[in-house]
Amino acid sequence: MRTSSEKTPVAVTADDGGGDHHPSHAFEGDAAHAFFARSRGLVDERLHQIVPAEEVTPVTVHGAMRWSLFAGGKRFRPALLFAVGTAFGAPDEDLLATACAFEMVHTYSLIHDDLPAMDDDDLRRGRPTCHIKFGEATAILAGDALQALAFQTIVGDERLAAELRIALTLELARAAGTPAGMVAGQAYDLAAESRDGVTIDELDLIHRHKTGAMIVAAARCGAIIAGAGDRELGCVTRYARELGLLFQITDDLLDVTATAADLGKTPGKDARARKATYPSLYGLEAARERAGAVYAEACAALDQLERPIQLLRAIAGFILERRA
Ligand code: IPE
Ligand code: IPE
Ligand code: MG
Ligand code: MG
Ligand code: MG
C-alpha cells in the first residue's frame, strides 16, 4: 500500500535542467519512443488481464471491448501518466492500474465518438469502428462497460491507500464527465459543428474539454500517485493543459494532412462534417504556428519543476511533431 513517495526520482534519462526547447533533438525523441514502447507493453499486458476474455458471456460485449481496445492505439494517456509518475519517483506497479483506467475511458470515448449520432466514422485504429463491426447497440454497451471497468480498476487497486484511490477516482470522473470534462467538450464540439463564427476562445474551450481534460488528469494522477506537493502539481497541470491543447491541434492538422494508413482513421472528416478546428478557422500555417506556441508554453511550465523533466519535454516535442 502506498500513500506518498519520498523516493528519489527515477530519471529515465539523465536530466539536463532545461533551456533547449527544440523538439527534434534526436536523443530526446529516442528516449520518448523507448519510454512509450515500454509503458505500452506494461499497459497492454495488464489490460489483457483486466478485460474479460472474449469467451466470457456476454461474448458480443467483451469481443467489442477487446476489438477497440487492442487495435493499436498510441496509449498516449497511460504513457503520460507513467512519465509524470516516474519523474516524481513512483514505481511502475503503483501507476499501472490507473494508467489502464485512463486507456479504458479513452477507448470508450472513441467508440462513442465514432457512432453515427456523433462523428459517424467507419475506421478507427486501422480497423472498422466498433459499431460497424458489432452494431450500434453493442458498441454503446462496450463503451459503457469500458467506462465502468475503468472506475472498478482504480477503486479495486489494492496497492494504493483508500484515500489515494478516492483522489484518483475524482480526477478521472471529473475529466471524463461534465461540466469540466470530455463529455462537456464533446457536447461543445457537436454544438459548434456547421456553426459560423466560432471564436478562438470557443475553439480552445472545445479542445481543452474534449481532449485536454483527460490528458491533464492523466498527468495529474501520475503526480498524485507519486505524492507530489501542491506546487509541483500546479506545474504538472499547467504543462498538461498545454499538452492537451497541443494534442488536439495536431489531431486537427493531421485530419487535413495525413493519410488513412498513417492515422488508422479516415482523414478529411472534419471538413466534411464542418467541424470547428484550427485549420478550418485559421488555415494550416496559423494552426502550425499556434501548435509551436502551445508547445513552448508546455515547456515553460516544465522549467518550473526541479525534477527530471527531459522525458516530459520530449513527449511535448513528440506530440508537436507526430505524424499519427
Ligand atoms: C484520438 O486520440 C482522439 C483525440 C482525443 C484526438 P488518440 O490520437 O490518442 O487515439 P489513439 O488512442 O492513438 O487511437
Ligand atoms: C475526439 O475528437 C475527442 C474525443 C473525446 C474522443 P475527434 O473527434 O477529433 O477525434 P478523432 O479525430 O475522431 O479521433
Ligand atoms: Mg469528435
Ligand atoms: Mg471523431
Ligand atoms: Mg479528430
Outline of the structure:
This protein has 324 residues and is mostly helical.
Cα distance spanning the termini: 38 Å
Low-confidence stretches: 1-24
Ligands, deduplicated? 3-methylbut-3-enyl trihydrogen diphosphate, magnesium ion
Number of strands: 2
In helices, the fraction of residues equals: 55-70%
Radius of gyration: 19 Å
- Quaternary structure annotation: single chain
- How many helices? 15
Structural class by SSE content: mainly alpha
Characterize the biggest β-sheet.
Answer: 2 strands, antiparallel
Strand content: under 5%
- The run of helices and strands is HHHHEEHHHHHHHHHHH
Output mean pLDDT.
92
Shape descriptor: globular
Strands ordered across the widest β-sheet? 1-2
